[in-house]
Amino acid sequence: MKSLRGKTALVTGAGSGLGKDIALLLAREGAAVGVADIHLPAARDVVSIIHASGGEALAVSMDVSDEHETEAGTASLVSRFGSIDILVSNAGIQIVSPVHDYTLTDWRKMMAIHLDGAFLTTRTALKHMYAQQTGGCIIYIGSVHSHEASPLKSAYVTAKHGLLGLAKVVALEGAAHQVRAHVVCPGFVETPLVKKQIPEQALELGLSEEAVVKSVLLAGTVDGQFTASSDIAQTVLFLTTFPSAALTGQSITVSHGWGMR
Ligand code: NAD
Question: What are the DSSP E strand ranges found in 150-232?
């Protein structure tokens, strides 16, 4: 028996990296999946993979920082499959620079995608979930940087800390409607987002790329290993299928031990 049969999930930033693997796993578990991305061809490719394996999915063109696109995209998913039961707010970017050089344009872009995006998709998902009266689950993809700081990442660290607050408020307000909320906090996963920052950090810090991987990215892990995107997808699946509000409002770190207390 597939654990998400009859459920509909919206995954943002699902055309690549973590979002793609989360979308594929939720679809394999029987969910109809809205594959939302600002880059529509990438979303369509993921939908093709899901359709080829017998699953249900819809490509959704969505800039998560745009109020109209988040509402219209979510409505199109509900219109196609009849409900939205799971939101995975995953879309994200990285811009690295020391604080004294960080431009206001870049700062606002980071806040718009990470925080406006999480808020806008949450607001529209909650309206549908509350009206459906069948509960739901909202997962924010945070980061170890929801708890820790690193140099050069002021906007990212600020935004990822902010998701913890949003998830806790959604857990509180959603409880009366059987809606749960969590933050999943990955360590470094080798996705395009991370591969792009290795040469950038090497330049900023005056290190080789190998040194950035070993002594910056993976230095805090117990075993020097990258986290796999499948580890994140499995954690999302576990949280979405958990049956009660015994587990809500939590931050779960998946990082080979980086950031553990
Ligand atoms: P990625 O670059 O592989 O994928 C990000 C996706 O988001 C892309 O498909 C991109 O087109 C999409 N996107 C970007 N801006 C968007 C917007 N405005 N609206 C909709 N879609 C948009 O990145 P990833 O590594 O898979 O990161 C996904 C999430 O995981 C991010 O929130 C990131 O901060 C978080 N995260 C990643 C890592 C890691 O090591 N890769 C670690 C911790 C947290």
Answer: 179-186
